[in-house]
Amino acid sequence: MDNLKKNQIEVVTIDTNQNQYQDYPTLTLRKQTKEIEYFSVNLDEKVTLDMVSIHGGKFKMGTPTQEQGRSKDETPEHEVEIKDFFVSKYLITQSQYQAIMKENPSFFAGDNKPVENISWFDAHNFCQQLSQLTGIKYRLLSEAEWEYICRAETTTSFCYGTTITSELANYKASFGYGLGGSGKWRQETTEVGIFPANNYGLYDVHGNVWEWCEDHWHENYIEAPTNGQPWLEKETSLDSEEEIPRVIRGGSWDDTAYYCRSGVRLWALPSFKGKLIGFRIACDSMST
C-alpha cells in the first residue's frame, strides 16, 4: 500500500445551534481537512478512475429507533464487520462508462455527470469489462459495504449530521428533513464531485442517483450476514435472476431528503433502467 497516492480533501459537517431568541435553529457548516489514499486507473487517454482505500472495521448497520422516518426494512440494527477494500471516489461517470462500454445511455448528458438509465446487469457488465481490461477484479458493493462507506463512522441520519441541505447534496430539496429547511431542487443530475466529500473522501453518497448494490432484496435484516458479504439467495437460476429484485441505496435528485438517509434502502428489478439509478464500484486489491 506504500505506492498509494495521497490527497487532502475538505470534509463538511453540519452543526445545529439554537438559542432562546430564535424560532428556528441555525445550521452552520463546519469544515476540516482530511487525507485520503487512493490509486488511479487510466481507462483511455483522457479518462481516469480513482479508487479510494477504505479501512475495514465494525459498525452498526440499520437505523436507531429514534431516527425520524425509520422504516421496518431498516431494522433490526446489527453489527457488521467490513474488511479493507477500495471504492470509486465518485459515482461512475458517463465518460468512464463510455470508455469501457463504448456507449452512453444516459438521459442527462454530461461527461462528468453520473451514468444512469442502466440496469443492474449493465453495471455488472461494466465491472466485468473493466476487470478484463485491467486485470483487477472490480465488482459492485455489497449493501453492508455501501452503508459503511456512506456513514463513514457516523451514526446520524446523514454522513454530514442530522440533516442535509441543498448546499451538500443534489436531492428534491423542496422538502426539508428534521431541523433542515427547504432549498434548491435542481431537477436533474449534477456533475460528480461538486458537493463536499464525506469522512472517507467519497462524493455523492446522498442523492444525485441511486446506486445498484450486489445484494438481492430482503424485507428486513433478520438473519442478514454480519461479515459484509452480499446477501444473496442460495438457489437461483438464470431465469429467476431476472425476477429477483436488487438493492439500491443513496437516494437521487428526484427524492426528498428522507429517501437520501444513510439507512434508507429500496429495490428495483435488475433489468430496470431509469434516470434515477447509477452505480459505484469496488475492488479488494489494487493488484492482479
Explain what this protein looks like in three dimensions.
- This is SUMF1/EgtB/PvdO family nonheme iron enzyme.
- Residues 50-282 form the Sulfatase-modifying factor enzyme-like domain.
- By secondary structure, this protein is an alpha+beta fold.
- It is built from four helices and twelve strands, in the order E-E-E-E-E-E-H-H-E-H-E-H-E-E-E-E.
- The protein has one domain: paralog of FGE (formylglycine-generating enzyme) (Alpha-Beta Complex).
- It is 12% helix and 26% strand.
- A hairpin with an 8-residue loop joins strand 1 (5-17) and strand 2.
- It is globular and about 55 Å long.
Give short descriptive properties of this protein.
288 residues, alpha+beta, paralog of FGE (formylglycine-generating enzyme), 12 strands, 12% helix, 26% strand, globular, formylglycine-generating oxidase activity
